[in-house]
Amino acid sequence: xxxxxxxxxxxxxxxxxxFNNIIIDNFLDDEYYNKxxxxxxxxxxxxxxxxxxxxxxxxxxxxKDKISTEINNLISHLSVDTFVNKLRHIFNxxxxxxxxxxxxxxxxxxPRYGRLNMHLDYEKHPILENRQRRLNxxxxxxxxxxxxxxxxxxxxNADMTECVSKCYPxxxxxxxxxxxxxxxxxxxxxxxxxxxxxxxxxxxxxxxPLKSNPVKNKLGAGEDGYRKKAVFVKRPQDNYDERMEKxxxxxxxxxxxxxxxxxxxxEWTIYS
Length: 272
Fold this sequence. Notes:
single chain; about 270 residues; alpha+beta; Jelly Rolls; 13-stranded antiparallel beta sheet; 5 helices; about 15% helix
């Protein structure tokens, strides 16, 4: 069975600005898409990672043994040479492979009031030795989504002065983009979908041998000169807040936890 949409047999032109990306409608065959959507979790369980702070409000399930057979099968389809070779050809990156660890990827649910502020992804893989993140796939899994609910994946220019592209989470759509020192992206507008509904995506990442050079003053870099967590920044229209800046300084090195919020911003709520 060919699970991919018609795009797979066409030549795909990359959008070079603000950084290399493609947006694909009808990413999967309609029947296969329905199987995937119907296999998604019905609710948030303790198996999800919980991100609940002013920078990011979301739930992430990255444990393969807790993900449905159908979604694990989809991940396998997106990992085979036939598919990976297509990505290699489109983006002209000949040495990418799928990140089997699902570190930071998997199923992502954003609730009402969810968000993911503008950021650069980690550079050097925090688990796999001498591997670097190169491509993201974000596959949208909502049968219905209204633009008035926000939830678009935004791509910004290199100096974070302007939003260049917005990709709303339409049914069976995917956005694929390169990750680099200029690939600023996020879901910064607070999501306003109905209560009890989620913005649902499957994220999958592709890696290559480590090619970037260590630079200690690189944004978000650790002592070894590599960024191994996401680094977040404010948009020009966002008000300066000292508490937010403290959280931004923590996030490149670890997740923000309840103790951080209790110390830095105890009065914050999801409605803030």
